[in-house]
Predict the 3D structure of the following.
Amino acid sequence: MNFLNSLDISSSGLSAQRLRMNLISSNLANVNTTRTENGEPYKRKDAVFESVKDSDFEDVLNDQIDTASKGVNVASIVEDEKPFIEKYDPGHPDADENGYVRLPNVNIVEEMVNMISASRSFEANATAVSATKDMAMAALKIGETS
C-alpha cells in the first residue's frame, strides 16, 4: 500500500465521521421540534456506512496488484423508525384532544454517546493522516546526507 492510498482511506473516514457529527448535531438541535414540514415531529437521522469495495478474495487480490484505493462511503441517511415520545402537556399548541404532545424520537444520552464515538473515530483517522505524513517525510529524508 502506498502513502496516497493510506491518505485516501483516512480521508474517507474523516468525511464520513464529519457527516455523522453533523447528523448528531441536527438530532440534538431538533430534540424539541414537534412539527416539521410534513406536520409530524422531527425523526432522528443516522448515517449508514459501507466499504468502498467488497472484500472478497478476487477484489483483495486485484487491490494488491492494482493498489486501488479503498475506504468508507456513506451509503444513505436513514430516519429512525422508533415511535415518537408522548408527553402529557395540555397547554402545548401541538397537543392532541387528550393533551398529549408527540415529541421527536431523539434520546439525548444516545446522541451524546454517538457523538463521543464519532469524535474518537475522527481523531483516529486524523492521527492516521498525521502518521502517514510523518512516514512520508521520514522516507524523503532517507536519501539525505548529513
Notes: The beta strands are 45-51, 72-79, 85-88, 100-103. Residues 55 and 115 are 28 Å apart (CA to CA). The mean pLDDT is 88. The chain has one domain: 3-141.
